[in-house]
Amino acid sequence: MEQNTLAPYNEQTGGHEDTLFMVDDGKILLKLYPNTSQELGNYEKFNAEWHHYSLYTPHFYGTQGIDGKTFLKLENLTYGFTSPCVVDIKIGLRPFAPDASESKQRVQTKKFNATTGCSLGLRLIAMKRYEPLQKLNINYPKSFGIEITTKERLKAALRLFFSYSTEKLDSEILHQPQCSSYQESNADNFPMHSVFHQETVKQVLIKVEQLRDFFEKTPKPQLNFYSSSLLIVYEGNQIESQDHLPEPKVKMIDFQHVFERIPDTQAGKEEDGYVFGLQNLSSILQELLNKQ
């Protein structure tokens, strides 16, 4: 097999481009680079001494070499969905690992402080949603996520993510979706004519709270997750898939910077803010449900 014969993974939202590829049987390949090689070791630990975290991470099937490059073979979290809606949310209060250089820390901190990451411990990176009336996927790239600088905008974006329009959207929204295209004062009503997937959000909220409870009660070894994401996936075409609606998925991803909380080490002393981020995500989802 050669890399140029691999099919790109079209459901990717965040992360680096040209790193995810499709394979059969509900698996994907994640291309490793020299600066991401630590992710392999961390996935191997999720199958071994960190196995108690594996319920909340994609299943790891080992590695595959192609054209002299190493790929991780992982569970495809969108497998089994007809029209998956996907959102990538960074969780935690630190956008860099304890061993990052001072220059990288300065750059990452400046970017981080301009988002909701600093105040809420979570920031929306990118997302994709489905409009069943027009049978279209709408991608909201990183440029969309960068504009989400307040809690109200984040709540509005998640309200949008868990909704579909009951009327045709104009081409400007479809082709250039921007967070600034709606007003914060009207955030809870965007789009104006829409259906909110209330039952889906209830299921997602339960899973987020289960993950939060796990972190609060987790047995040793306890881990710190830096610059890690939470991936939420649900079925967007719920009109045609009512009889066999797959359960939403809430999984942790991006494990390049994972450290055991070992006393008297830099990685062990610093708080990653993961529980804080999960608490705020739970609160926002509950607020969205209370509005219905």
Give your account of this protein's structure.
The protein has 292 residues and is α+β, with helices and mostly antiparallel strands. It has two domains: 3-75, Phosphorylase Kinase, domain 1; 84-290, Inositol polyphosphate kinase (D-amino Acid Aminotransferase, Chain A, domain 1, 2-Layer Sandwich). The protein is 30% helix and 25% strand. It is built from nine helices and 14 strands. It has helices spanning 38-46, 102-113, 117-120, 142-146, 151-161, 171-175, 198-217, 266-269, 274-290, and strands at residues 7-8, 20-23, 27-31, 60-66, 69-75, 84-91, 122-131, 136-140, 163-165, 194-196, 223-225, 228-235, 249-253, 258-260. The strands form four sheets. A five-stranded antiparallel sheet has the order 1-2-3-5-4, covered by helices on one side. A hairpin with a 2-residue loop joins strand 4 and strand 5. The longest helix is centred in the last third of the chain and has 20 residues, at 198-217. The protein is globular, with a radius of gyration of 19 Å. The N and C termini lie far apart (51 Å).
